[in-house]
Structure formats: C-alpha cells, structure tokens
Amino acid sequence: MNTSSPNTKADRLLAAMDELKSPPPSEKKTFSLTILISFLSFVALYPVFFVYHSGINALGINSFLGGFYGPIAALTSILSILFLFPAKHLKKARSAWIVYTFYAYIFLAILVIVYNQLISVDYYIEQAVKQAVYGLILLYANFTIGCHMMSDDTSNESNRLKLLWLLLGLITLITCANLYMTGEAIIAPINGDNEARRVTYQGYSRSVLMTSLFILATLNKKVPILILGTLTTVLLFAIGARAEFVTFAFVFFAYFVFLDVKIWITAGILLSFLCIVTFWEEILNYLILSYPNFRVLTLLELNENSSYLLREAMNKFAIKQILENPIWGQFGGHFEFGEHAPVWYHGDYTSSGSYAHNALSVWVNYGIINFTLFIVLSVGSIITSAHGVFIKKYNSTIWKLAFLMSTSSFILVATTKAGVFFPQIGLAWGLVVCALNSSSPKAKKPIP
Fold it and tell me: How far is CA 114 from the centre of its chain?
C-alpha cells in the first residue's frame, strides 16, 4: 500500500523543479565570472581607453600597451576561449540563428584570408592579411563581450552604473581641462610618428558614444536622461566626431519618441540640444579666449569638405571593384585606391585606411556571401531588439542596450564606418544574443 500523501509528492515535484532551475554552484560561479570578464572588458575597451590615451599623451610618454584597444581585445579573445565560449546559454534556441550566422561569417572570412594568402601575388597581400586578421579578432572579442554582458540578476546593476558615470565624469573633466588649457578637446600625441600612439578623435568619440549608450539603457528617470543627453552631445561636439554626434542625437531622440515619453520631455531635450549648438561659441568665449574651429560645424558644408569628398571617392572606387568582382570581391582591394585617388589630393592613400567607409567594404574584402551574412546580422539585430523593446515592452537594461547599440552601429556602418573593420557592431550582435537568452521582464510603467 502506497502511504505517500499528495502533499509529499507535490513537495518532491517542486523540489525537483527547483533543482532543474538552479544551476550547480560551480556553474553559477562560472556564469558570474563570464559576466565580470565581459563587463570589465567593455569598460577597458571604451571609457578606460579614453582616460588611458589622454593620460599618456598629457605626460608625453610612450604607450606601454600599444594602441590599448588591440591588446585588450586580444586578451578578451583568449579569456573567451577559456571562460566564455563554453557558456551553455549560447546554445539556446532563441539566439541560435545569430550565433551560427556569426560563426559562419567568421569561418568564411578566414577561408578568404587563407586562400588569398596562399595564391595572391598582390604587393599589398601581407598588409591586407594582417589587417583582416586583426579586424576579426576585434570583432570576435566584441561579440563575445556582448553575449555575456548581463544576467537576469540586477543586484549589481547600480554598481555598474556608478562606475560608468564616474568614468564619463572623468572624461568630461579631461575634455574641459584640455579646452581650457589648449583650446583643443583632446591632446594629440607628442610623437606623431609613433604608430602605437596615433589615436585620433575617432577613438575618443567611440569611447564617449559607447559609454553613454550603456548608461542610457540603464536610466529610467527624465533628469538623469537629460543630463546624459546634454553631456554626451557637448562632448561629441567638442571632440569633433561628426558621425557619432549625428548618430547619438538621432538614436537619443528616436528612442524616447518610440517609447511614448511625454512630448514635453522630448521637446525639452531638443530645445536643450539646439541651445547648446546655437550658443556654443558664446559659451566658449566666456570660458576661454579662443576656441577651435569644430569639425562638427562642417556638416553644414560637406560638399566643400575634403575629408567627405575623399571618402566619396573611396566609396565609388569600392563600387567599381564590386561590379568587376560581384561574387568574390577583391580581398585587400582598398590598397589600390592610391592609383585612383582624386587629382586634387596629394596625400598617401595607398594605405590600409582607403577602404569604403560603409558596409560595402565587407563585400569588397570578403565577397557577396559574407556581405549578405553581415546585413542579416545587422538588420536582424535591429528588428529583434526593436520588437522586444517596443512591441513586447521588455524593460530590462539588456534589451534596451541591445536596441541602442544595434541601431547606432548600423547607422554608422551604413554611412561613415567601414563595416569590415568596425568591431563595435559585433558587440551589438552579441548583446541581442544576451537579450534573447534573458527572462525579458516587461515594463510596469513608462519613464516618469
């Protein structure tokens, strides 16, 4: 005779379910370690990058970590093989399409690199291979960071937010000090011939943009949001990052419009933005005796800007190469641009930077298959994250961060950044993987 009561059976069933839900202590420890590694890697690659290079340039010393971004990304890639890659949540069905598409992209890119290394006789092949391998390492590192950025446990979210606010505040102080003392927002390396120390405004603006987007995804009150929006706009304007400036402004406003924030909040943000731009010169005249001719202002006269015209020439050259080799592209073909540079430009553009400054660079370097995979990943990430945030109303930080990063990265690679060498888009793809594997809590109320 079975003497077990229904209550006893129910208790056993509940206990068994709890055991299935809760991973063993060793797995919990590993999962926490992956999150810690990912977040610290993000902090090092973006806000700390700004502080590091500002410090060594101000002191006039050589960088002991090269360009900093590359060594940190390489270290992250190594750690990912040891700690991050085996994470079980990457195998979940919801995110499988992104994971496998990404690894298909990496695998095919490696095949193209190896093939050209073996058979190509082009004079630039060694440089092209090194650049491509370096780009894949950075892309992989950022993707891995995104995949493991957060968990459903939000207990440490406030600590992460405090650290990022602290670093953004430090970046602001450094920028203000530079403006006051030198009239320039960033300090250029004293030894400009040292390749390891040649960090331009693009590297600094990347740090500001990525840090600000992370903070924005965690905010739920209008005053901090207004402060962040104003601060980031001023920083990007002062640094002279036209693409990042416009991208942040667009994503910032569109994000809150789609979230149905009260119209007066959006109007207030827009008014603050316009006032800053309109009275920027007067503000600087009050703070310092002279101010630089900010690059952002050239947005009003792009047709006369040599940098813009040169990039347009590079894009046309890339289209020409694609039409000549529509299936396989022309690996490293951007090194040939120097032979076709505009007659009015007398610089050396046979270098590694003469690629198409948009997603077409993927097509040129790796062919139409990888270009298709790149577009699927990029557009799919935007659609997936936007559906989660605006349709499903998921209000967790990871979903909002996935949307902000995916949208901003896609805008940049569609307009001004070479997709084939733009590793930040890998971070966006990884964040969507992380969001899909989260429990996705819904919003209880809109931003007050």
Answer: 27
Instruction: Output the CA torsion 435→440→443→448 (10° steps).
Output: -30
Q: Which residue has the tokens 């947005």?
A: 299
Distance CA 139, CA 77 (A): 10
Whether the Cβ atoms of residue 374 and residue 104 lie closer than 8 Å to each other = no
pLDDT digit string (tens) for 262-271?
655 665 666 6
- Whole-angstrom Cα distance, residue 388 to residue 391? 6
Q: Please, are residues 400 and 214 in contact by the beta-carbon 8 Å criterion?
A: no
Alpha helices per DSSP H over 184-241: 201-218, 222-239
Torsion sign (Cα): 58, 64, 65, 67: positive
Q: Give percent of the chain above pLDDT 90.
A: 36
Angle between helices 157-182 and 222-239 (to 10 degrees): 40
Q: How far is Cα 143 from Cα 84, in angstroms, rounded to an integer?
A: 11
User: Using CA atoms, how far apart are residues 388 and 397, in angstroms rounded to an integer?
Assistant: 12
| Residue entry with tokens 């930040």 | 424
pTM (predicted TM-score): 0.83
Handedness of CA 404, 389, 166, 78 (dihedral sign): negative
Instruction: Let me know if 325 is exposed, middle or buried by CB neighbors in 10 A (0-12, 13-18, 19+).
Output: middle
- For the stretch 220-243, what's the b/e string if a residue is b when 16 or more beta carbons lie within 10 angstroms of its beta carbon? eebeebeebbebbbbbbbbbbbbb
> pLDDT tens-digit profile of 142-169?
999 998 887 666 667 888 999 999 999 9
Cα separation, 120 vs 433, in Å, equals 37
DSSP 70-100: HHHHHHHHHHIIIIITT-GGGG-GGGHHHHH
Phi-psi label, residue 422: left if phi above 0, alpha if psi -120 to 50, beta otherwise: beta
Q: Given its phi and psi angles, is residue 300 left (phi above 0), alpha (psi -120 to 50 degrees) or beta?
A: alpha
Q: Between vectors from CA 312 to CA 102 and to CA 130, what angle results, nearest 5°?
A: 45
Q: For residues 311 and 354, give the distance between their C-alpha atoms in angstroms, rounded to a whole number.
A: 8
Domains of the chain: which residue ranges? 26-436
